[in-house]
């Protein structure tokens, strides 16, 4: 796999990886949605899909997949969309998105405890 | 070496550290993260319409923004991601793509370049994103009161000193933010 920074890559590679699509359904994945593989890679699968399924054997955030694959977050979201549509992954969405900007007080307390323990 | 999350991880939260170049964002993320900070990029694609028309030269332009992040385990089920993000203008085009739903933000400030923070503070207010301001003390510099006045910060916004290299100091900044959130919401 190409390890150069994305900035110096040909845009054509990103175009190929996503099959020419430039947009995922933005609501399907948050940047910290946790992705979980529901199956093992199978022969003939696109190499990026294989890598995602391997990474997500344990829950893995979209941004971590992006960092590991060295692909922009929005490109990873398009790849994830394919895997979600075919039932190969499940998604654990962040609860903060569902409560319209008002975090659960219990969550804030938990965060405070965790920070104090650092 | 990658450190995966626990199998029970079900919910992730975000806090964003915003600041100009060289102000210490990456240092702060690294000081509190339990993993070696990772970096990645986001692109904003403009004018991607018309790609089916192969006869025309595409005038697509791509804006790329690099950012880094670390992670703090909150509980068996919950993890907190801490992002370091550049405050420059083009970065705000990808704010919604990346950071919608964040708990809040830390504006990291270098008193020698206070003007770098004006735009970030303005955008955070525009996005209704709660934030605190932390001064990364390099050497002396103006008092917090003088910084508050120069940044035109309202009295309700916490302003603290920190040393981005020190874990305890960064921890104090994050606790200040979460206490601020608690006051806002509870």
TrEMBL record, chain A:
User: What name does UniProt use for this protein?
Assistant: DUF742 domain-containing protein
UniProt xrefs under InterPro entries? DUF742 (IPR007995)
């Amino acid at each position: 796999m190409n390890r150069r920074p994305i900035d110096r890559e040909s845009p054509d590679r990103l175009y190929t990886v996503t099959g020419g699509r430039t947009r995922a359904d933005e609501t399907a994945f948050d940047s910290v949605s946790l992705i979980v593989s529901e199956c093992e890679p199978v022969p003939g699968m696109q190499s990026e899909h294989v890598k995602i399924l391997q990474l997500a054997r344990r829950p893995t955030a979209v941004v971590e997949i992006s960092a590991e694959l060295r692909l922009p977050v929005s490109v990873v979201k398009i790849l994830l969309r394919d895997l979600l549509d075919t039932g190969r992954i499940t998604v654990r969405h962040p609860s903060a998105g569902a409560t319209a900007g008002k975090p659960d007080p219990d969550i804030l307390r938990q965060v405070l405890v965790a920070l104090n323990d650092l | 070496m990658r450190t995966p999350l626990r199998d029970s991880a079900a919910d992730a939260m975000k806090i964003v550290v915003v600041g100009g170049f060289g102000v210490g964002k990456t240092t702060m993320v690294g000081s509190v993260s339990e993993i070696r900070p990772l970096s990645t990029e986001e692109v904003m694609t403009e004018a991607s319409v018309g790609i089916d028309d192969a006869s025309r030269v595409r005038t697509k332009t791509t804006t790329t923004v690099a950012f880094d992040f670390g992670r703090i385990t909150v509980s068996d089920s919950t993890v907190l991601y801490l992002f370091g993000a550049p405050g420059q203008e083009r970065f705000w085009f990808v704010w919604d793509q990346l950071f919608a739903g964040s708990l809040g933000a830390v504006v990291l400030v270098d008193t020698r370049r206070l003007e770098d923070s004006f735009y970030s503070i303005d955008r955070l207010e525009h996005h209704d994103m709660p934030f605190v301001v932390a001064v990364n003390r390099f050497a002396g510099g103006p008092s917090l009161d003088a910084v508050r006045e120069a940044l035109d910060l309202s009295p309700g916004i916490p302003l603290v000193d920190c040393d981005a290299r020190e874990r305890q100091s960064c921890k104090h900044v994050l606790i200040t933010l979460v206490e601020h959130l608690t006051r806002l919401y509870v």
